Amino acid sequence: MTKFKLYSQLSLLTVASALVFAGCAEKRVTKPNLAGVEKTLQQAEKDARSGDEAKALKEIDAAEKTLIEEDKKHPYAQQPKTWTGEDVKAKADADAILELEKAKRDAKAKLAGDAADEVKRALGDVKTEERR
After folding, report:
1. With contact defined as beta carbons under 8 Å apart, do 33 and 69 qualify?
2. Domain range holding 103?
3. pTM for the complete prediction?
4. DSSP secondary-structure letter at 84?
């Protein structure tokens, strides 16, 4: 009878520990799909270079909203940091959004060439983020 109690307690302990540790499993991190953002930014750069600031401004807004939405869908959880302690993907996102803000300001001021340069830099930041 004591063996039966011992086995039942052991099995109960095993089941309880499995339930406790089930929530501790590492979450699978999915990479965001930024191909649409890249295409939109390339089109915005092309439009800004051709002098169509209004169309470029709409595309910049759309790319920025998509980038922010992707960040909400796929937040960076426990990503490896560089030896400096900064998260490379988060920094690339912040840089891309900053460049898009500058591009919007330049497009509103009818500075097509400057807006195109800012969009090109933002595109580089998005590609940096996607590579990681």
Report:
1. no
2. 35-131
3. 0.60
4. T
